[in-house]
Amino acid sequence: MLSCPNSCGLFTPSITRTHQHRPFKNLPLLSLFQSPHPRFSLPPKSSLNPTPPLLAASDGGEENGKERPKLRWVEIGPNITEAQKEAISQLPPKMTKRCKAIMKRIICFSPEEGGELSLLLSTWVKLMKPRRADWLSVLKEMKSQENPLFLQVIEFALEEESFEANIRDYTKIIHEYGKQNCLREAENTFMAMKKRGFTCDQVTLTVLIHMYSKASNLSQAEETFEELKLLGLPLDKKAYGSMIMAYIRAGMAERGESLMREMETQDVYPGREVYKALLRAYSMSGDAEAAQRVFGAIQFAGIVPDAKLCALLMNAYCVAGQTDKARSVMENLRKARIELSDKCVALMLAAYEKENNLNKALGLVMDLENDGGYVVGKEAAEVLAKWFRRLGVVDEVEHVLRAYYTQTNKLQSIFL
Which residues of the chain have pLDDT under 50? Predict the structure, then answer.
């Protein structure tokens, strides 16, 4: 999850309250949502004094000669599932009673049974008078249990005065919606934030750029990126990286590379995955020159290329028909003592097949065998087998290779 600096943690209570409590027995946590939740348990009904689902009336004494009813919270009944009992037993022992009261209700809540979450929460607020620390404790536990009502509870809390919502709370909710690709809900939360008078800052706008980039909404990502620039603050690698990924997803790798160069002038560099995505985009299109530029930028940024990055550069040369340069990349990989992947060898064999150069292909395999004890892997073997079948020389080549593998104790049947 995106970290938000200088924030009041949404999921970490800022106030610790100590109460007397009775520890729950530690039992294994089962899946909380495998079976339907039961209806809220109700207190025994009376024809003279019926009680509502969430509250029960009790004798509160007399006031001006009349009985004054007093509302009290009704505990969860015994008719709940084993999974719900386990989840309740796993609530933190140090959690306050008011927090445990609402957590038990949330664990057993079932909208299918006609329950109203807003009524449950508003009743809790009215009776228990929670503070921000209580809200944060409940949200943290819901997050830990991956409760599906998590976002609904946050949305309710934002409107409550006792929650004392700040801009970081809104930002984190927008990020949660963005991870689930719920753009409409995220935008609604963003509008509600502005309506309450919170001014957009760098963190919030960066979260929005990441969300729009992930959703392949280039126009909105660009608009938000420009708004971020207007703040006049130095842009970080997260904002730049998200925007570069937006261009890559839109098939505009050149603009992504241009933004990468802009970053480098400010001594800011994208993460490894952003470089890899840009290199892959050029590799798939066969733009070998651009792929080599990005590969050089990767090394300049202090990232040591591995076999996967080298394979992408090799593929760019192979697609462009520059087999000798692809082979040079492989040789540099070997000189650097980086273990060759089966993918790298398969790429070279496929390139030689395009050139119909069987001698170079077999020479490569033998050279690798003699140098480092390389054994043909599945992907490379499939390339050779397909090639030999097309030539109609499977039996002859298999006989030669089988004799070689037998002598070196590395017999593999790659033609089955």
Answer: 1-53, 55-63, 68-71, 407-416
Residue recorded with tokens 């390389």: 374
SS3 400: helix
pLDDT in tens, 204-262: 999 999 999 999 999 999 999 999 999 999 999 999 999 999 999 999 999 999 999 99
Burial string for 103-112 (b: 16+ CB within 10 Å, else e) reads: bbbbbbbeee
- Tell me how far apart the alpha carbons of residues 124 and 130 are, in angstroms, rounded to a whole number: 8
DSSP H stretches of helix in 73-201: 82-89, 97-107, 117-128, 132-145, 150-158, 167-179, 183-195
- What whole-number distance in Å separates Cα of residue 274 and Cα of residue 260? 9
pTM (two decimals): 0.74
* 249-269 burial code (b ≥16 CB/10 A, e <16): bbeebebbbebbeebeeeebb
Say how far apart CA 102 and CA 104 lie, in whole Å.
Answer: 5
Handedness of CA 202, 206, 208, 209 (dihedral sign): positive
By CB atoms closer than 10 A (0-12, 13-18, 19+), residue 294 is buried
Nearest CA among 181, 126, 128, 136 for reference residue 158 = 136
